[in-house]
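re the bet — no i am not wrong, look at it urself. input seq straight from the record:
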Amino acid sequence: MRYTIEGNSLPVVICDLEPGEAIISENGGRTWSRGDIVTETKGGGLGKMFGRMLSGESLFLSHYTARSQAQIAFASSFPGSIVAKELGPGESIICQKSAFMASTDKVTLSTAFQKKLGAGLFGGEGFIMQKITGPGIVFLEIDGYASTIDLRAGERLVADTGVVAIYEESCTMSVETVKGVKNLLLGGEGVFDTIITGPGKVVVQSMPISSFAARISSHISVSN
């Protein structure tokens, strides 16, 4: 499968399918298509459906199979970036809720639970995240600009809550309280930091949708 990502801050991924190739997305995720493509809606079993519901995804997935050479596109739902990851057999990544856009049909989606209580309660990513496993190519939606950081073994990345979008399964996530009373009360950085420890790659996002919504709401006056 060949693909291109276009559109700058409002991106779209355009996939060119050969006969017999298939791609999956969230239910109704397709933006447009060209050519002879068969669309099927599948759940994949109650366990997988329940896991997708917990991780913020739709219960059902749309399967698109090309009968001839065809083209299909999936657009971002929020200004940001689309990240393409090619995963080997059994290779997994952990993602924020609702990051999944589309993938080749051999990719599997499951639920990843935070092992540490603090990471789930205060990390901004929640107890439940997505686990995406290869083989295949997966397209992920990132809020704002996406920056990839490669951590060495034992190296730590300190991030604001909600900023961590994707990390490799070899990394670990934890949460730490911001040190110092003045920093807590006056620093403006929040009470908790999300810590990712390597080795592995981490993708951070410049504008989490929760932060964007908070900034917008602060400028909206509510009248009785």
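see?? Residues 119-124, 180-188 have pLDDT under 50 and may be disordered. told u. also The helical segments are 46-54, 117-122, 181-186, 209-217. so pay up
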